Amino acid sequence: MQLKTILNRVQKFKCFIYESVRLTDHADGMRLEARLRPRSNSLAMCSVCRKPAPGYDMLPVRRFEFVPVWGIKVFFVYRPRRVDCRDCGVKVEHMPWVKGKSHRTVAYEWFLARWAKRLSWKEVAEAFCTSWESVFRSVEMAVTWGRTHQDLFGIQAIGVDEIKWQRGHNYLTLVYQIDEHSKRLLWVGEKRTVKTLLRFFQWFGTERSHALRYACTDMWRPYLKVIAKKASQAIHILDRFHIMAHINKAIDEVRAQEARELKTQGYEPVLTKSRWLLLKRPENLTEQQESKLSELLHYNLRSIRSYLLKEEFQFFWAYQSPYWAGKFMDKWCTKTMRSKIEPMKKVAKMLRRHRTLLLNWFKAKGQMSSGVVEGFNTNIIS
Predict the structure, then answer these.
(1) Which sign, positive or negative, has the C-alpha torsion 87, 93, 98, 104?
(2) For the whole prediction, is pTM greater than 0.85?
(3) At what angle do helices 355-363 and 322-337 cross, to 10 degrees?
């Protein structure tokens, strides 16, 4: 089977034919060049309005990179025509294998974009002997196409979170759909400011924003402010993932500080290698970790008291009624404030400030969680 036959099977164009295919040598290796020409008596189409128009002149020969075969680069070779369109003026003709002024065919860009879902962009560029820029532009094309053809009907629950990227304090704001029937990334914006999230709601539209029933976020103030303004009718949820993350952070801070104090004062370093004992859930501990934790619980240390407060707070999520959950939280916060453990006291103060939003978790009956958002974020970072 000739290469022209294969090309006609996989990439056939209505008003163009493959004139010839030849193998050539170049500095970067061998190339397959497929030369195209217009069909006889076919009119060129304006690239703007896509209407047939009379010819105006010819441009120099251009090469468009296609999907490689057997590790050999493949190029379409074509001399574009310019047309004298009645509505648009003199324009380059529409070439169905390429978009705009790109030197990559649409098929090749989709090929690179699909591989970029499996490998890093650098690995894709190296595997197919192209540039990182080409992979980036291909992914950008795929994302743009997806955004244009995105179905935004029926979205009732969104999750908002941020991830750190590059060096320094650089963040991206990510908005996900977290409905039970559909979980996907909707939007990405630079930084994590009020203006960033406002841009999402501007893109999302007023009607869709007012149709939202649930919104999950962390306690980042700009996010809280924008959700309250743009989706005030939605039940705004601060779920257990973020709350427990703050409590674990406080415990880790207490443990590190107390371990240093024990070492300085010459006491037995009982907190050495105990970090994950205090942070993991009891059911996730190994037998060895369970044994060591049971020994630690005999010590009257701030770290142990913080751990016990954390485990006590887990009962908060078992309540069904927002009223009784609120009663429990108030009692826990009072107890924590009297513990004289500063990092834990900061957590208690934070919970009191966001009491209403925390109790929304029970109004949503625990159905909405940003845990899925964190899962998506992990995939993006990796």
Answers:
(1) negative
(2) no
(3) 140
Q: How far apart are the C-alpha atoms of 196 and 172, rounded to whole Å?
A: 9
Q: Are 106 and 97 in contact (CB under 8 A)?
A: yes
Sequence length of the chain is 382
How many other CB atoms are there within 10 angstroms of residue 104's CB atom? 21
Instruction: Determine phi and psi for 59, rounding to 5 degrees.
Output: -100, 165
- Structure-token match 């993991």, residue found: 280
Mapped onto helix, strand or coil, the DSSP state of residue 215 is strand
Question: Where residue 373 falls among pLDDT bands split at 50, 70, 90?
Answer: low
DSSP line for 229-250: HH-TTSEEE--HHHHHHHHHHH
3-state helix, strand, coil in the chain (%, to 5): 45, 25, 30
Token look-up 């500063």 returns 342
| Domain locations along the chain | 3-103, 106-149, 157-237, 240-365
**Measured in whole angstroms, how far is the alpha carbon of residue 326 from the centre of its chain?**
34
pLDDT digits (tens, 9 = 90+) for 42-91: 889 999 999 999 999 999 999 999 999 888 999 999 999 999 999 999 99
Pairing relation of β-strands 157-164 and 214-216? Answer: parallel
pLDDT at 151: 86
Residues forming a β-bridge with 62: 78
In the chain, beta strands by DSSP E: 16-26, 29-38, 55-58, 62-69, 72-78, 81-85, 89-92, 157-164, 171-179, 182-190, 214-216, 235-237
Distance of CA 90 to the CA centre of its chain: 42
CATH 3.30.420 matches 157-237: yes
Count the neighbouring beta carbons within 10 Å of the beta carbon of residue 101.
7
Residue 282, token pair as written in the block: 């009891």
Instruction: Give the rounded distance of the alpha carbon of 292 from its chain centre.
Output: 39
